[in-house]
Design a protein that fits this description.
Layout: H1 18-26, E1 35-36, E2 47-48, E3 54-63, H2 67-78, E4 84-87, E5 99-101, E6 107-109, E7 115-116, H3 122-129, E8 144-148, H4 156-179, H5 190-202, H6 208-229, E9 252-253, H7 263-267, E10 275-277, E11 281-285, E12 288-291, E13 294-297, H8 300-306, H9 310-315, H10 320-326, E14 346-350, E15 354-363, H11 367-377, E16 378-379, H12 384-392, E17 394-395, E18 398-404, E19 416-420, H13 424-427, H14 431-434, H15 437-443, E20 450-455, E21 458-464, H16 465-471, H17 476-491, E22 501-505, E23 518-519, H18 526-533, E24 547-549, H19 562-577, H20 594-600
Parallel strand pairs: 1-22, 2-10, 3-4, 3-15, 4-10, 8-19, 11-16, 15-24
Antiparallel strand pairs: 5-6, 7-9, 11-14, 12-13, 14-15, 17-23, 18-21, 18-22, 19-20, 20-21
Keywords: Cytoplasm, FAD, Flavoprotein, Oxidoreductase
Subcellular location: Cytoplasm
InterPro entries: Amino_oxidase, FAD/NAD-bd_sf, Flavin_monoamine_oxidase
């Protein structure tokens, strides 16, 4: 993950309401709480949820119109199933993929920024197929300037030396997962291991000033890594699990029309009436049994009194053999891939009064939302192993700060200014005190590790963790003033202008996301992600699951990425499209007798 750029998703206005958002963005610096929010977004391309109580029957209900939900819907359509609906809490599709206009007819991505890797990346393939990106990617010249708080510019040779050493340290962290090495004693996190290597590296530096300068560069790179990983501090990230993330080759690709342009081909084939926006889900009754009055939710406690392993039997995936044994009693229609088994209808209640009855549900609700709602959202509650995995995994906060200017002020050759904050005074502050509002109010901005130039008049800053959460509480004017002060100090230029517009994302505050993306903290494992992906079966006899889970938090190798979300949606659809019975394998032989056939497959 060393050469990945931060891939911050962010709060989400509607794409169709870009004109309205343009006005909002222009007025953002004058708004008291000027955060880009999505909870009250305008209606998008689909129908909006009715406020009247009504019931709808559907074969497959997809919860969430982000990348995982759109992927699942497209895969169903490609395999002949159009009996599905998507319910989306926001007023638009796209989830953590969203853009808004910010002056000069330019769109900026509040959410996902880059296609991470080319080889084997389905998002890149879709982009190429629809002409959204050139096959030949020519990177722009990238000149980074690193400066201290007093304006001292670090020689590029030192910056390059420290960066190369840092990348080496990070790759060694990856190797623990890949090669099953044992780390040094009492080192459990990525941050601890990298700092351990930093101390060894700097022990040979004799000049105290040079040593301190190199330490500041390492500190800056570690702050950058928190934005890439999605955490507050790299000491939170499990050392043995870092390498579980699989990095695709090919670098980071920017779509010329913005990442949100990928939504058009994914939404084009889905009927508008199949997407219901502004329809937040309140309750999912996933395990129900027939009674004299109809289908009722099973009481897990009463069922467990009769069977000690009831929870296990309804959550295990049926084996091929048991499915074959049950095949005789299950009607199947080979001519239609949408003829799903009728066992156990799932009932989904929405906040606007709508009720859906579905044979199957594909749940793409983000991990950040599940962390806050999983105990009340599912009836009965999720199996204990799923609840524990939801709580074990981390869903960090990463936010963006966009600064729009009337005129350029940075040198045309400079593309990024790295901020080398002197953290020596902070080192003496306890972790408990760093979490207080008194501390954050005076130091939140020191988590901004750089300002990158998107255009000559548009800068982008990143901030993560508790500092990002605190920033979300500030008015945009306060953020703009602090950023101006930072730039004037680090560039030693009192004439750096104030931005005409400042737009900040508020990823943590958003009701329907609750953070940025998934990572594996100390004590959690890749198995926790695999647990989240496990489907749930309403009964031990069910051949297909009642609920299938999808989203970046369910892909054990590509968590935190858009392509991970896409692939998880496709996998979820495949669960429901699979045949009830295993395919029969017929082996033909050229010989006329069994012995001749056996000779043909004999092992030497």
């Amino acid at each position: 993950m060393a050469d990945k750029e931060p891939k911050t998703p962010a709060p989400s206005p509607t794409e169709e309401g870009l004109a309205d958002m343009a006005a909002t963005a222009a007025a953002a610096s004058a708004a008291a709480a000027g955060r880009v929010a999505d909870d009250g977004a305008a209606a998008s391309s689909g129908g909006t949820g009715s406020t009247q109580s009504s019931s709808t029957n559907v074969k497959v209900l997809i919860i969430g119109a982000g990348m995982a939900g759109l992927s699942a819907a497209n895969h169903l359509l490609q395999n002949g199933c159009d009996d599905f609906l998507i319910v989306e809490a926001r007023g638009r599709v796209g989830g953590r993929i969203v853009s808004i206009p910010l002056g000069n007819n330019q769109k900026v991505e509040l959410g996902a920024n880059w296609i991470h890797g080319v080889l084997g990346n389905p998002i890149f393939e879709i982009a190429v197929q629809h002409g959204l990106v050139s096959v030949v990617n020519v990177p722009k010249p990238h000149k980074v300037v690193a400066t201290t708080e007093d304006g001292h510019q670090v020689p590029f040779s030192i910056l390059q030396e420290i960066y190369e050493a840092y990348v080496c340290f990070l790759r060694r962290c990856d190797e623990y997962f890949l090669c099953q090495y044992s780390p040094p004693p009492d080192i459990n996190s990525v941050g601890e291991h990298i700092n351990y290597e930093i101390q060894i590296y700097l022990s040979s530096v004799q000049d105290p000033k040079e040593k301190r300068l190199k330490q500041l560069i390492f500190n800056c790179l570690l702050k950058r890594e928190t934005c890439i990983t999605g955490c507050h501090n790299m000491n939170e990230v499990d050392l043995l699990e870092l390498g579980s993330y699989t990095e695709l080759q090919g670098g980071n690709i920017v779509l010329p029309a913005g990442y949100s342009s990928i939504l058009r081909p994914l939404s084009a084939q889905i009927a508008k009436e199949s997407i219901m926006t502004k329809c937040p889900v309140k309750k999912i009754h996933w395990k129900r049994k027939k009674t004299f009055t109809g289908l009722e939710t099973v009481d897990e406690n009463s069922e467990n009194e009769d069977s000690d392993d009831s929870q296990k039997t309804v959550t295990e995936v049926p084996t091929a053999a048991s499915a074959a044994l049950r095949g005789a009693s299950v009607e199947s229609n080979a001519s239609s891939n949408c003829d799903y088994a009728p066992e156990g209808s799932v009932r989904v209640d929405c906040e606007n009064g709508r009720v859906f009855h579905a044979a199957h549900v594909i749940c793409t609700i983000p991990l950040g939302v599940l962390k806050h709602t999983h105990r009340t959202l599912f009836d009965p509650e999720l199996p204990q192993y799923k609840q524990e995995s939801i709580e074990n995994l981390m869903f960090g906060t990463v936010d963006k700060i966009f600064l729009v200017y009337d005129r350029p002020f940075l040198s045309a050759a400079i593309s990024e200014v790295m901020l080398l904050w002197d953290d020596e005074k902070q080192d003496a502050v306890s972790e408990e005190d760093r979490a207080t509002e008194a501390y954050l109010s005076k130091n939140w901005f020191k988590k901004i590790y750089s300002f990158a130039k998107i255009t000559d008049t548009l800068l982008l800053g990143w901030v993560s963790g508790r500092e990002a959460e605190y920033m979300e509480t500030l008015p945009n004017e306060a953020v703009a003033e602090k950023c101006t002060e930072i730039l004037r100090n680090f560039l030693q230029d009192p004439y750096v202008p104030k931005p005409k517009t400042c737009v900040c994302t508020s990823w943590k505050s958003q009701t329907y996301t609750g953070g940025a993306y998934t990572s594996i903290p100390v004590g959690a494992t890749q198995e926790d992600i695999e647990n989240l992906a496990q489907p749930l079966y309403a009964t031990p006899q069910a051949t297909k699951p009642a609920i299938v889970f999808a989203g970046e938090h369910t892909h054990s190798s590509f968590y935190s990425t858009v392509h991970g979300a896409y692939l998880s949606g496709r996998t979820a659809a495949q669960y429901l499209l699979a045949n009830d019975e295993p395919d029969e394998i017929i082996m033909e032989s050229d010989g006329s007798d069994l012995s001749a056939w056996m000779q043909g497959i004999a092992l030497d």
